Amino acid sequence: MARKQERSLLTEVELEFMTVVWDIGGGTVRDILAELNKAQTRAYTSVATVLKIMEQKGFLTSERHDRSLVYRPAVPKDEYQRTTLKDLSSKLFDGAPAALVARLVDDEEVTDDMLESMRALLNERLGDNGR
Hints:
Helix content is 57%, strand content 9%. A hairpin with a 2-residue loop joins strand 1 (60-65) and strand 2 (68-73). The protein has 131 residues and is mostly helical. The N and C termini lie far apart (58 Å). The chain has a two-stranded antiparallel sheet with strand order 1-2.
């Protein structure tokens, strides 16, 4: 039996795969391959290998149905986003979320509409809906 590794962050390729699994809710290697191949052609065996590694890391679970394994997310998307953001804030912004937000706000690609959306979220969180 394969030993389960401690969960860490997903690699870029694993995140691409995980995004597909989150979007479709799970599926066989063929199901996931079909979705991935819409953007870039991949080999069945490569996809199967990456999915197995992700299962060993604790990001996916699998269950046998007929002759196929069906992979499902073991980690909800919002939980992974939260964990990744905390890790990023800790490592890159010295654990200061305000520094992360300040950097985001200073990004020239962030539009005024995006900033207004952020303001609305902050106001809601702070209970300042009247402003």
